[in-house]
UniProtKB/TrEMBL annotation:
Stored Gene3D superfamilies: Tetratricopeptide repeat domain
Protein name according to UniProt: Pentatricopeptide repeat-containing protein
Alphabetized PROSITE patterns for the sequence: PPR
Source organism of this protein record: Urochloa decumbens
Repeat (PPR) residue spans along the chain: 148-178, 179-213, 279-313, 380-414, 415-449
Keywords: Repeat, Transit peptide
GO biological process, one term: RNA metabolic process
InterPro entries, per database record: E_motif (IPR046848), PPR_At4g14850-like_plant (IPR046960), PPR_rpt (IPR002885), TPR-like_helical_dom_sf (IPR011990)
Length: 605
């Protein structure tokens, strides 16, 4: 069809676009690609040149599904796919997991006599490898007269995806010439299979043999180091960034993530400060990094810096902020951050919704947590667990149990975390029989093996109800090895119930596990003192001195104007300590003038 005749059949705005810009320019521009699609669809039998331009444009924009649909449309209109576009079609099928359409493209290439074309052969190897059909991928590869590194890299990636590391390595070792992509494929293959040591050893070999690591290599290595905590290899890889001019936002973000996971948060922040530009991923990595490393104040301060830059936070950013806020447990700050997060109008996904529930619970806003839970459209097990745990910790045991029953009735499979929350609810409410029934239900009905956390809940439940010897028998019969927390729970209960005999047994087990823990000695000493066994008290204190066990100092915490302050006895580290002591001394003088009742004071001492 002539362009003039084509324009006469188009809406005015499309006709104007065609007058002002060439069709190939419209096809390659994301802002006008939809208009270009209308133009293309208006042509009854497009020429080979027009088809090539359109399919190339879709491929450049990574619109792979649209490309496959366009090919189907061309066949229906009686127009064939130009020979040079067959590799593009196969690429789209590979990236869209469109196995059926990819095989049709293979048949088309066979009928058109194109299987001798090296580009078509390489695209076929890539298609079959990405779709997991390694038999077909190898068959096409073996028919290639010249086996260059590109199809071999495709096969290595395919073997990696199928988990066959051994075949991938044999192919890699047999390559006469390796490109950077070859090394990257094999390193990624080891990483995909969890063989991190071999992956890093291959990276070291790559550098020693004079190969050229690129940004993909370095990013992969940083990812492996983050998983393994191998900060030394990560630092060696970091030196290559400047040396080989591999600096870009993706590499720097991967480096920050590696430092965060290796708990080198200050190094991560230095890299963050060096970045000339920062996207939301970089901000989110650093904000979450501070939260994950137990430095919530810095996390929230960085979030305030991010807001000033007008970089819009995404779901990952907000989850990091909520985690930091939850660690502080601040009532006022929790409400403030919660209001901000909800004002962003992001969908309450299981990820964001669960983080919001957890933050509200830890900051004491149980009603708002319930509201978020109710509004969540899709509730996965993590959301149910967060809500059940929150109700349990805030004293709503019956509500927690009712929610668990609703969870089961909605066919959501509870996991080990669900039962920790449920048993915690029973412990807080003293529901011993229910707790024991849930413990058995966990094993028999839901096939969840008891972990040490479940057993700790059961011991706590029995101890709080005064059934100490039953708790001791439970500990002795446990399928998992009891830890210090379990024995400490029993020892504390022994003091509350004045059971000296059982206290000696529990303390003996504890001292085997934690011989330098001063709290064990202090607690046992107090139990002896309560029973009037002063000789035993002296023995415990002498034992502490002989082992040089020091009693740990206790801190007091207070929240004021959204900030949490921490104090130690005779503490002078607080910036306003002099002012605080002046006020305390004044209060002491005021107390002296009031002639307080000694009996009243003794009740509080």
């Amino acid at each position: 069809m002539e362009p003039r005749l084509l324009r006469s059949h188009l809406p005015t705005n499309l006709a104007y676009l065609l007058k002002t810009r060439p069709l190939h320019a419209l096809l390659s521009d994301a802002s006008t690609s939809q208009a270009a699609r209308h133009l293309f669809d208006a042509v009854p039998r497009p020429t080979a040149a027009l088809c090539s331009a359109f399919l190339s444009g879709l491929s450049k924009l990574s619109l792979h599904r649209e490309l496959i649909e366009t090919v189907s449309s061309l066949h229906r209109r009686g127009a064939g796919v130009p020979p040079g576009c067959v590799p593009l079609v196969l690429k789209s099928c590979a990236l869209s997991a469109a196995a059926c359409q990819g095989r049709q493209a293979h048949c088309h290439a066979l009928v058109r006599g194109m299987l001798g074309d090296v580009f078509v052969q390489t695209a076929l190897v890539d298609f079959y490898a990405k779709n997991g059909d390694m038999v077909s991928a190898v068959r096409v590869f073996e028919e290639m007269p010249v086996k260059d590194p590109i199809p071999m890299n495709c096969l290595i990636t395919g073997y990696s995806k199928s988990g066959d590391v051994e075949k991938a390595r044999r192919l890699f070792d047999g390559m006469p010439r390796r490109t950077s992509a070859s090394w990257n494929s094999m390193i990624a293959c080891y990483a995909h299979g969890g063989e991190f040591h071999e992956a890093l050893a291959l990276f070291d070999r790559m550098v020693s043999e004079g190969a050229s690591p690129n940004a993909i290599t370095i990013t992969t290595v940083f990812s492996i180091c983050a998983k393994t905590g191998d900060i030394d290899t990560g630092r060696r890889a970091r030196a290559l960034i400047v040396e080989r001019d591999l600096q870009n936002m993706i590499v720097h973000t991967a480096l920050m993530e590696m430092y965060v996971k290796c708990r080198a948060i200050d190094e991560a922040h230095r890299e963050f400060d060096r970045m000339p530009q920062r996207d939301v991923v970089a901000w989110s990595t650093m904000i979450a990094g501070y939260a994950q490393n137990g430095r919530p104040h810095e996390s929230l301060e960085l979030f305030e810096r991010m807001k000033v830059t007008n970089c819009k936070p995404n779901e990952v950013t907000l989850v990091g902020v909520l985690s930091a806020c939850a660690q502080l447990g601040s009532d006022e700050l929790g409400e403030q951050i919660g209001n901000y997060v909800e004002s962003q109008r992001l969908p309450l996904t299981s990820y964001l919704g669960s983080a919001l529930i957890d933050m509200y619970i830890k900051c004491g806003h149980i009603g708002r947590a319930r509201n978020v839970f109710t509004r969540m459209e899709q509730k996965v097990v993590i959301a149910w667990n967060s809500m059940i745990r929150g109700l349990a910790l805030n004293g709503f045991a019956e509500d927690a149990i009712a929610l668990y029953e609703k969870m089961v009735s909605d066919s959501i499979q509870p996991n080990e975390i669900t039962f920790v929350a449920l048993l915690t609810a029973c412990t807080h409410a003293g529901l011993v029989d229910k707790g024991m029934a849930f413990f058995e239900e966990m094993k028999e009905k839901h096939h969840v093996s008891p972990q040490v956390e479940h057993c700790a809940c059961m011991v706590d439940l029995l101890c709080k109800s005064g059934r100490l010897w039953e708790a001791y028998k439970f500990i002795c019969d446990m399928e998992v090895e009891p830890n210090a927390v379990i024995w400490s729970t029993l020892l504390s209960a022994c003091r509350a119930h004045s059971d000296v005999e059982l206290a000696k047994l529990a303390a003996g087990k504890l001292l085997t596990l934690e011989p330098d823990n001063s709290s064990i000695y202090v607690l046992l000493s107090n139990i002896y003192a309560d029973a009037g066994l002063w000789g035993d008290v002296r023995e415990i204190r002498d034992l502490m001195r002989s082992k040089n066990v020091q009693k740990l100092s206790a801190y007091s915490w207070i929240e004021l104007d959204g900030e949490v302050h921490k104090f130690l006895v005779q503490d002078t580290y607080h910036p306003r300590s002099a002012e605080i002591y002046t006020v305390v001394d004044a209060l002491g003088l005021q107390l002296d003038r009031t002639n307080p009742d000694p009996e009243l004071i003794s009740e509080f001492c």
